Amino acid sequence: MSEKIGVMVCGHGSRDPEAVSEFEAVAHGITERLPQYDVDSGFLEFATPIIRDGLDRLREAGNDRILAVPGMLFAAGHAKNDIPSVLNTYAAQHDGLRIDYGRELGIDVKLIRAAGARVEEALASVDDSIPREETVLVVVGRGASDPDANSNVAKVMRLLWEGLGFGWGETAYSGVTFPLVEPALDHVARLGYRRVVVFPYFLFTGVLVKRIYHYTDVVAERNPDIEFVKAPYLNDHPLVLDAFAERVQEILDGTNVMNCQLCKYREQVLGFETEVGLPQESHHHHVEGIGVGGDQSAQSHSHSRDHHHHHGHSHGNGHHHPYPHADHPLGPRSMKPTAGK
């Protein structure tokens, strides 16, 4: 007898009715992407239905295997401890039921592109008289007592900053860790840029997102010469829903743990789309081993361009692909060697 598989989307929960309805909209979007499964959802706290209620419905519908995914961007305490505890307890209480737990959305090229689209939406709502090089991007994460989760927000900020070509980038948090939004924006206001884009890297609205926007207004009032732009959060962007569906499929297929997800040669990483399919080759083959003893000359090194490991077509010239922001005012030109150096 073949197993019947259901999918459980596990949310954190919020006292804000808007956040609850937005989570339900995302769960509905996931349902539409996975028509082959029964899909249900529930919350860890602050809202109903709770996760146990969704598990009950899936089990009563005849599902004997449940693929559970955390409806969260990063894995901190809730995703690492609280949700697994609920799932494990429930499975132990129901013989014959198998529950497999997937990973959080994490650092994912789809999420970065969705985030980039939200930032672009914000920029499209203001005039283009201020160039991006004179704009600071501030990415605000939830904040956790887990430095691993906090560091992921900083990585998202860097990918967006570099991919979209902003003049500067900073990371802030809505709570628990530092810097919080108000002191971070006060710091940014002293950097001398003309525009600040504040982007909450959140899935849903709620008290924290509204607090982020509030403190943006507070700092903007103190700095009337700087334009502060509030970008929308991720919400139910189609690429977010696609990423959730992928997390479900990963449970069945197994996850590729090699760090290739954000490889610019394999995926259309924001700002580097033209490099997909270029050969991955070392541009340092002429200097390999120099300075570590033996023959210090690289002139005798022979090299054939016939042994590349290709992802696709060759660009042929053997040089680095042009960096999309090579003319950035804080970029390569600022480190040109001076006379005599």
Describe this structure in words.
The chain is an alpha/beta fold and 341 residues long. It folds into two domains: 5-104, 3-Layer(aba) Sandwich (Rossmann fold); 106-237 and 259-280 and 309-332, Rossmann fold. Helix content is 35%, strand content 13%. The strands form two sheets. It has a four-stranded parallel sheet with strand order 2-1-3-4, sandwiched between helices. Strands 6-5-7-8 form a four-stranded parallel sheet, with helices on both faces. The radius of gyration is 24 Å and the shape is globular. The N and C termini lie far apart (75 Å).
Could you tell me the number of beta strands? 8
Main β-sheet description = 4 strands, parallel
Report, as a whole number of angstroms, the end-to-end distance: 75 Å
Overall mean pLDDT stands at 85
Strand content: 5-15%
CATH topology of the largest domain: Rossmann fold
Helix percent reads 25-40%
Series of H and E elements: EHEHEHEHEHEHEHEH
Number of structural domains: 2
Largest sheet, spatial ordering of strands: 2-1-3-4
CATH class of the largest domain: Alpha Beta
Q: What is the global morphology?
A: globular
Short characterization:
The chain is of the alpha/beta class and 341 residues long. Helices cover 35% and strands 13% of the residues.
